[in-house]
Every structure is written in structure tokens, then in C-alpha cells.
Specification:
about 750 residues, alpha+beta, FAD/NAD(P)-binding domain, D-Amino Acid Oxidase, Chain A, domain 2, ten-stranded mixed β-sheet, eight-stranded mixed β-sheet, 24 helices, about 35% helix, Glycerol-3-phosphate dehydrogenase, G3P_DH_FAD-dep, transit peptide
Length: about 750
């Protein structure tokens, strides 16, 4: 009897203890200390580190010059030997023996066409497996889709929701793959990427358990690669974290974590890391045709130097020989496929995604926002980026163009959606749009699938009968996985043999090596990119203390260039002021300095002014007008470095203006001359920007009060707002939908299935 009574007490105690242990374990898993990328000490100590703080300048490896890289491309076709042989015969020498082919004159294992995220990722993967690799790009690295993303490194919460509700295993696999790649992304380039908390505002109480379950499942799928767990915020805490949020109807918020990055700088870093490991990487080199052998298999390509054309010279067309050719040209995939076979069926269905840049005061500096309940059911992001705020995106069928223009309808739609979840007293003005651009997503259809099947948002690797290997589709986050699968396929298709890298380049500039053993297998999940080895969160302090650079400039340089910020600072001109000592700003509004232009020309293959203001220092993406104002300085510095004449400088001015037109620069400013800009005429015209703010000497206090009173009354009339805030001249539009309709693909479209 006593034993029975004892068991009645012991069992509940055991159950309680078990539940407590399980709860404690779950709590530990959720709140356990984690190694956050970028917070650990640098693999390479800063140069000022050591006894007595003696400065030891870093000795970073330097990639081959562009001319040297082009010479290597020509050697792959035996051009050098052929020229030497002809010269020998012309001089009267005899040569009956066939000249020996050197290693430099052997064909490349792989020729990659396209210098976006996919192409440069493939180049880095292949060269670190010991293959002989060449990459050519018609424009600049990241000149297309890869520079016009939402700047997120994410698994995709919307894809996860679709996967669950539609029981779609492909969508589920895409999310799991992207979450794994997200961590690799942050580990290999901690200076260019970081974790970002993103808020989901809740308008109904039932949304709390729904989104809580979704974000927790998102955390669960990330597994050990996750960093921070999602959490719930009460209404007051949500407003404290995001003060601009509309109070009315708000019941709380959920916050989850994803990554953010500087997309085009990441792209350039991939290209330069591949070049330092031995790949031949050349931008502004256009493939004009593909070459086949007697068996109809691809064996090379003809290319021409686009820079020679810019210099007013006739471009020389030459042959590049390779055992295998990879097409990684994004939206232009089908144009390369048709070089191989004119009758091939197109697989790319281009979709335009428009983003706008707003001033930084529209969002907190360290918190993003996602609205899953837009007017048409689509998702819109509202994120801090480079000191400003990025909002987007749309999803509209479009034509393929080199520099597409964001249409006014898309911009208006984004602004209206932004206004829906901000406080009513915050006037979301069209004139606050600092830049706007349209990026083309290369959605693809599997040519082997039936015509009734929808488009896919993951990637596709296919090979033509003649041996053209095409990697298309996908997204930024999964570029590394796409590259790995493509190189695996290329090795099998072209019969290539990988090999360990003997005495690989020490990217860190010291004896410190990557933990990745470059043994001929894929190691890109551990290969750190250029700039990552010496980066730490406190590196900017060392930079300030040695070079006397402004704090905001030093922080920016470390986040954009990593440990190469030392070289950028060394290339910066003295200011001849007490402080800052070095670094003449390109734009007074942003932390970009003159040393960057010199560094990008000497160490990152920048060849045009647009290469610098758009893809290296991102000014064109942050503020189109500020980019216009900085152009004279940028062109002059590049002219010194590249020995441009007056004709080339004038050509750079005109081509840069055309590009800025695609980034949201109003049409009235596209006709400005360099003299107009240097005279300070930008912003002094009777346009929307000038009249956005109250200026001195324009109104008496009585008039100002009267205007404010009238304005307050008129706030209730949307027609007044639309009329008062509209620019005099709208952007030219490449939109293909009727005015007044929603600039987003409908739910029933095959794109969203």
C-alpha cells in the first residue's frame, strides 16, 4: 500500500522533471551562445598589431593586369607561337619541326561567358579545383541582374509558405538549400555581408501564431547554420524598434533574421579572388561567335576588346581556345545559346523587378521590414542599405534590355505600398526617391519539360548536343551551389581532371592560409574572398589611428574592401587639413573617397566611370543626382590612371549620363554638360527636388504659416498630394502594362506557380 502511494507521487515528479528537462534543452538550443559571422577576431592581425605598435604595411598579392590577361587569352590559341614562327621564317630561318606547345599556350579547360554572380562563382570554384579557367564579360562584372537585387541573402520566407500550402517539394528544397548557403555566404565574406533582423507587422491577433509557427519553422530548417532565433514583439516594443510604423491596427510584430549584402562588390570580389588564384578574368570583352571542331563540338570562341572601341581604335578580334564552354549570361542566356544553335527554343522568361531608394530616415538603421499583405498579395521589402532605405520589388513580364528603366507606374505602386504601413503623418513623397532601377530576373523553363509546366525560380543546368553548358536561373544566395553543380557537370561532360593547387596564392598577403585544403575538390564553402582574412568589426579603428581618416569613411572602407581598406587608404590623397588627414570625398553626402577610384582601377579592373560609380562604390544606386555631381572628379582621376585623352573623357561623360538615366536621374538633367555640373547647376532648376524643402528668403513667417495651414487642410485630399508631389518630368518607362493597373504579375500567372 505504501509503495502504491509512493508511486503516485513519484510518477508526477518524474513527468514534471522530464518536461522541465525538455523545456530547458529547448531553451538552451534557442538561446545558446552562437558564433556570429564577423564578430570573431581577424585571421590576420592588423598591421599595427605587434610590439610597440610598429606599423608593418601589408603586402597583398596583385592580380595580373588587363593587358596581361588578354595576352593569356590569345596564347590559348597558339597565337604567340604562330607569330614567332612567321617572324623566324621572314628573317630567313628554317623550321621543319613543329614548335612545342607550352603550358600557357594550351587551351583552357573552361571558358566562362558572363561575369555576374553565377559566372564569377563558377570561375572561383573551377580554378580552386586546379582547372585552367578563363572568364570574359561583355560589360563590367555585375553590370546586369547581379547588381540590381534586393540586397538580401535569404532562404525565402515566401517560398517556404508556398512550399507548405502547395505541398511543393521543389520550393521546400530551394529554401533548405538557400538557408545552408546563407551561412557559407556570411562566413566567406563577413565584410560584405551581415545579419539583419526583419520585422513582420501583425494586424490581426490570429496572425501571431501563424507567423510565429512560420518563422520558427524557418529557424528549424536552418538548423546549426542559424544564428539568431525569431521572436515576438508587443505593440509598444515594435514601435520602439520601428518608430515609423503605423500604430493603427497594429497588435504586435514578429522578428526573424536573414542576411544582407553589398551585391556588386561581392561580385567583383569573386572575380578578383578567382584572378588571384590564377584564373584569366577579363571584363569589357565581348564574345562575337562560338567555334566548333570537325565533329561539331564547341572548342572555343571569338572575342573582341570593347575598350579599344571606346578609345577610338578598331577592335582586334581573336580566338580563345577551350575544352569546354559555359554560358552564364543571366537574362542574355538565349542569345549565347543561339550562337550555338539558331533553332534552339528559348528558355528565359524575363521578369522586371523595380526597386527604389529612399532617404535613411524612412527606416531604422538596423531593422528591416517585410509586408506580406500588399494590395495584391505579393511581398514587399523595406530595408536599410548603405545608409539609405531600399524598397521593392515588383514582378512584371518585360523585354530584355541592357539598362532597363524603372517605370513610373511601378515606382508609384511601391510608394503607395510603403505608405500603407507607415504613420499617416509621414508624407511618402515621389521627390524623396533618390534612385530607382529595374533588374531583370532570368526566370527559366526546363527545355526538357512540357510546355504546360510553369517557370521555375531555382536554377537549371543543361548541355547542348555540341557541348554548350548553360547555367541559368537561380538567385544570389545560391550562387555557390549553382557554381558547384555546374563545375561538377563540366568535369563529367568535358572529361576534365582536377588537381591540387601547388603553392596557391596567399590571398591574405601573409603566411596565413585558408582552412580550406585546395586538394582538387570543391572547397568554395570555406574559401575566403579577397578582403576577408584581415577583417574584423574593429579594423576601422586601426585605419583611423594610422591614416587619420574620418570615422564614417573608415567604417565604410572596411565593410566594402575588408583588409584591402589599408591599400585604399594609402592611395587616398592628403586633405591638407588638421583632420581628416587623408581621403578627399567624391560626394559630400556619402563616405566615398578618391583612393577608391585609384584602387578600383589598379586592383579591380575598373575601365569606365560607370564601373566605379555603379559597381564599385554604389553611388549611382544610392543617389543618382549625387553620382552626377561626382562624375567630374571620378573621370579626372581615372583619366590620370588610364591615360585618357579629352575625347575619351567626353565619351565617358555621355555614357555615364545615359546610365544614370536608367537609375532614376530625371530627364531634365540628362542634357547637362560637365561645365553645368561643375558650376553647381544641378538641383538649382525649377524641379521637384528644389521645391521639396523650405529655403531661406522664399517666404515670410506669415506666409509660411498660411502655407502650412493650407497644407494641413489639403492633406485630406489625395489629389492635392499627387499634384503637389509629382515631378514636372517623369522617367521614361519601359513598362508593358496598361496605365492604372497593378504593376505586379497576378497570382494566376505561371510565374507565381
Amino acid at each position: 500500500m505504501a509503495a502504491r502511494r509512493g508511486s503516485r507521487f513519484i510518477k508526477p515528479l518524474l513527468y514534471t522533471a522530464g518536461a522541465g528537462a525538455a523545456g530547458t534543452a529547448a531553451l538552451y538550443v534557442t538561446l545558446r551562445p552562437r558564433e556570429i559571422p564577423g564578430t570573431e577576431a581577424a585571421a590576420v592581425p592588423p598591421p599595427t598589431y605587434g610590439e610597440g605598435g610598429v606599423f608593418r604595411p601589408p603586402r597583398f598579392p596583385v592580380a595580373k593586369s588587363r593587358d596581361e590577361q588578354i595576352a593569356e587569352l590569345k596564347r590559348s590559341a597558339g597565337v604567340i607561337s604562330q607569330v614567332a614562327e612567321k617572324a623566324k621564317k621572314w628573317l630567313g630561318g628554317s623550321s621543319t619541326a613543329t614548335p612545342a606547345t607550352t603550358a600557357d599556350e594550351e587551351p583552357y579547360d573552361l571558358l566562362i561567358i558572363g561575369g555576374g554572380a553565377t559566372g564569377t562563382g563558377i570561375a572561383l570554384d573551377a580554378v580552386t579545383r586546379g582547372l585552367k579557367v578563363a572568364l570574359v564579360e561583355r560589360d563590367d562584372f555585375s553590370s546586369g541582374t547581379s547588381s540590381k537585387s534586393t540586397k538580401l541573402v535569404h532562404g525565402g520566407v515566401r517560398y517556404l509558405e508556398k512550399a507548405v500550402w502547395n505541398l511543393d517539394y521543389n520550393q521546400y528544397s530551394l529554401v533548405v538549400e538557400a538557408l545552408r548557403e546563407r551561412r557559407y555566404f556570411l562566413d566567406t565574406a563577413p565584410h560584405l555581408s551581415q545579419w539583419l533582423p526583419i520585422m513582420i507587422p501583425l494586424q490581426k491577433w490570429w496572425q501571431a501564431p501563424y507567423f510565429w509557427a512560420g518563422t520558427k519553422f524557418y529557424d528549424f530548417l536552418a538548423g546549426k547554420e542559424n544564428i539568431e532565433s525569431s521572436y515576438f514583439l508587443t505593440k509598444s516594443k515594435a514601435l520602439d524598434a520601428f518608430p515609423m510604423l503605423k500604430k493603427e491596427g497594429l497588435v504586435g510584430a514578429l522578428v526573424y533574421y536573414d542576411g544582407a549584402h553589398n551585391d556588386s562588390r561581392m561580385n567583383v570580389s569573386l572575380a578578383m579572388t578567382a584572378a588571384l588564384y590564377g584564373a584569366t578574368v577579363v571584363s569589357h570583352l565581348e564574345v562575337t561567335s562560338l567555334e566548333k571542331d570537325a565533329n561539331g563540338r564547341l572548342c572555343g570562341a571569338k572575342a573582341k576588346d570593347c575598350i579599344a572601341e571606346l578609345d577610338g581604335k578598331k577592335p582586334e578580334e581573336f580566338t580563345i581556345k577551350a575544352k569546354g564552354i559555359i554560358n552564364a549570361t543571366g537574362p542574355f542566356t538565349d542569345s549565347i545559346r543561339k550562337m550555338d544553335d539558331q533553332q534552339v527554343e528559348e528558355i528565359v522568361a524575363p521578369s522586371s523587378g523595380v526597386h527604389v531608394i529612399l532617404p535613411g530616415y524612412y527606416s531604422p538603421a538596423n531593422m528591416g521590414l517585410i509586408d506580406p499583405n500588399t494590395s495584391d498579395g505579393r511581398v514587399i521589402f523595406f530595408l536599410p542599405w548603405q545608409g539609405n532605405t531600399i524598397a521593392g520589388t515588383t514582378d512584371t513580364a518585360c523585354d530584355i534590355a541592357k539598362d532597363p528603366v524603372a517605370g513610373e507606374e511601378e515606382i508609384d505602386w511601391i510608394l503607395k505600398e510603403v505608405k500603407r504601413y507607415l504613420q499617416p503623418e509621414i508624407n511618402v513623397r515621389r521627390g524623396d526617391v533618390l534612385a530607382a532601377w529595374s533588374g531583370i530576373r532570368p526566370l527559366v523553363r526546363d527545355p526538357k519539360a512540357g510546355k504546360t509546366e510553369g517557370l521555375v525560380r531555382n536554377h537549371l543546368v543543361t548541355t547542348s548536343p555540341s557541348g554548350l553548358l548553360t547555367c541559368s536561373g537561380g538567385k544570389w544566395t545560391t550562387y555557390r551551389q549553382m557554381a558547384e553543380e555546374t563545375v561538377d557537370e563540366a568535369i563529367q561532360e568535358f572529361g576534365l581532371k582536377t588537381q591540387p593547387l601547388v603553392n596557391p596564392t596567399l590571398i591574405s598577403g601573409t603566411e596565413v592560409q585558408d582552412e580550406a585544403p585546395l586538394d582538387g575538390t570543391c572547397q568554395t564553402h570555406r574559401v575566403r574572398l579577397v578582403g576577408a582574412h584581415g577583417y574584423s568589426k574593429t579594423l576601422f579603428i586601426n585605419l583611423i589611428q594610422h591614416y587619420g581618416i574620418e570615422t564614417d569613411v573608415a567604417k565604410y572602407l572596411c565593410q566594402a574592401y575588408g583588409d584591402r581598406a589599408w591599400t585604399v587608404a594609402a592611395l587616398s590623397a592628403p586633405t591638407e587639413q588638421r583632420f581628416p588627414v587623408r581621403g578627399v570625398k567624391i560626394s559630400s553626402l556619402y563616405p566615398f573617397i578618391d583612393g577608391e577610384v585609384r584602387y578600383c582601377v589598379r586592383h579591380e579592373y575598373a575601365q569606365t566611370a560607370t564601373d566605379v560609380i555603379a559597381r564599385r562604390m554604389r553611388l549611382a544606386f544610392l543617389n543618382a543626382q549625387a553620382a552626377l555631381e561626382s562624375l567630374p572628379k571620378v573621370i579626372d582621376i581615372m583619366a590620370e590612371e588610364l591615360k585618357w585623352d579629352a575625347k575619351r573623357k567626353d565619351a565617358e561623360w555621355k555614357s555615364s549620363l545615359l546610365y544614370l538615366g536608367s537609375m532614376g536621374l530625371p530627364k531634365s538633367k540628362l542634357s547637362l554638360s560637365r561645365k553645368d555640373v561643375e558650376s553647381g547647376h544641378v538641383g538649382k532648376y525649377s524641379d521637384e527636388d528644389y521645391h521639396l524643402y523650405a529655403r531661406h528668403g522664399e517666404l515670410t513667417p506669415e506666409q509660411a504659416c498660411a502655407h502650412l495651414f493650407d497644407f494641413g487642410i489639403s492633406l485630406n485630399h489625395s489629389s492635392f498630394l499627387n499634384r503637389a508631389d509629382k515631378p514636372d518630368e517623369l522617367l521614361q518607362s519601359d513598362s508593358k502594362f496598361e496605365s492604372g493597373k497593378n504593376p505586379v504579375v497576378g497570382r494566376e500567372s505561371t510565374v507565381n506557380k
